[in-house]
Structures are given as structure tokens and as C-alpha cells.
Amino acid sequence: MPNKTEMHNDDARNAPWIRSDELVPGPSGLVILHNDEPYRLRITRKGKLILTK
Questions:
Q1: Domain topology for 19-53
Q2: Which InterPro entries does this chain map to (predicted)?
């Protein structure tokens, strides 16, 4: 049986990929609706991804 790391790596390989700079078009970020609630995804000055409700 594969361990958790191996299962996680398999999931990542099989999932669609997109570059963060293609997904988040500008400094104001991107709004994602999830269960009719808005979430903002943005990239910080240090290059980290932040998802806030």
C-alpha cells in the first residue's frame, strides 16, 4: 500500500496544472466563488499565495 506522500504525489501528477501568474492576473488577485461565498486568491510581495474569505 502506498504511503501518504506517494498518494499525494500521484494526486498532484494526475491533477490539472496551471501557473499561478496565469491564474492570478494582477495585484488585486482573483475572486473564486465556492458554495456561493467569495474567496480572494492573491500573490504577496514575497511570492506566497494567500486565499482569504
A1: Complement Module; domain 1 (2.10.70)
A2: Hemin_uptake_protein_HemP
Boundaries of every domain in the chain: 19-53
Q: The C-alpha cell of 3 is what?
A: 504511503
Q: Is the pTM of this model over 0.70?
A: no
Sequence letter at residue 33? L
Give the residue from 1, 53, 5, 2 showing the smallest Cα distance to 29: 53
Render the burial of 12-40: b for 16+ CB within 10 Å, e for the rest. Answer: eeeeeeeeeeeebeeeebeeeeeeeeeee
**30 sits in which H/E element:** strand 30-34
Write out pLDDT tens, residues 21-36. Answer: 899 988 889 999 999 9
